[in-house]
Amino acid sequence: MFILVALRLKLGEVMKFKICIVLCIGTLTLWAQQRIDYSKKESWAALPFNQDGADMIPKGLHPIADSLKGVDVFFVYPTNFMKGEAWNAAIDDQVLNKEIEEKSMKNQASVFNGSCRVYAPFYRQANIKAFYTTDTLSAIKAFGLAYQDVKDAFLYYLKYYNQGRPFIIASHSQGSLHTKMLLQEFVDGKDLAKQMVAAYIVGYPVSMNMYSTLQPCSSPEQLGCYVAWYSFKKDFIPENIHTFYKDAVCINPISWKADTVSTVFSQHQGMILLNFDKKQAQKVSAHVHDNICWVDVHHPLAKGFTNFHIADYNLYWYDIRKHVADQVKLFLRQ
């Protein structure tokens, strides 16, 4: 019934309708579920002043003490739960949590540790099958429960950790599905927007009509805005480009502009491979095409790839790190 009604709505209304359904079903689902206690350290994949995967840095960089950082980042990791019959992951699944640390924390959340204290909650993420199933109601419940955990963690962060500090919201893939709603519920048109340095909503489409006041970043110096991108091989056209990515915001993560001008290799600050070994600079050029980011990657490991979703952070790791540092400096100066 929800889908039939949604199909009759305009795009912006569809997004708000879907969010309403997820919020409502997430709340109903939570009545039958135990809430996550985010006062416990073990409920977090990353916390400041605590050694974890988000503290990792490649060779050539030096760690910066959390006590010296004036900005926080609230990071929501992507789907790591790929197996089994359960619709939602358990946050005490030690095997899964180790994978989250070694993949998402090390390769993604770590990009922010040069400028920010990193907060990343464990949450009962939806199984990957929720994105593809025909069992729509079960999928909506799964995403609703996952979002409610993210929301609970964010509320706990605001009440007990934030203390009025500036913050960044960042995410990838399923994490971005949840942070889109988090931004709409708590930041868009709200007083909290004054504290937000920027948002990095990566790897999941964000409609241009998603928010009332929150805007996409139009230049590298703009503050209080959001960036989003989805990486594909240059000249590759995904089948769902005119459906899934219709009206999606896409910002070039090298130039930090929404125009279609291609960057040159010399502009690329650097990528980091999954072995997290060393900086690979001037290896990527990028430009926005039909609301996705087309990339040309000069590295043998890139051969055969058309969808670089898994590397949405790795390809531009040093570019993101520099952009975060620049944004933080500008914000704190003001």
Strand neighbour order, sheet with most strands? 1-3-2-4-5-6
Compute the CA-based radius of gyration: 19 Å
Strand coverage percent: 5-15%
The total strand number stands at 11
What is the count of helical runs?
6
| Overall spatial form | globular
Distance between the termini: 49 Å
Average predicted local confidence, pLDDT: 91
Order of helices and strands: HHEEHEHEHEEEEEEEH
The biggest beta sheet, please?
Answer: 6 strands, mixed
Uncertain runs are 1-17
Give the count of structural domains: 1
Percent helix, as a range, is 25-40%
Helix-and-strand structural type:
alpha/beta
Please give a structural write-up.
With 334 residues, the chain is α/β, with parallel strands linked by helices. The chain has one domain (2-228, 320-333). Helix content is 29%, strand content 15%. It contains six helices and eleven strands. The strands form three sheets. A six-stranded mixed sheet has the order 1-3-2-4-5-6, sandwiched between helices. A three-stranded mixed sheet has the order 7-11-10, with no helix packed on it. Strand 8 (271-272) and strand 9 form a beta hairpin. It is globular. The N and C termini lie far apart (49 Å). Mean pLDDT is 91; it is low at 1-17.
Task: Provide a brief overview of the structure.
The protein is α/β, with parallel strands linked by helices. Helices cover 29% and strands 15% of the residues. It has one domain.
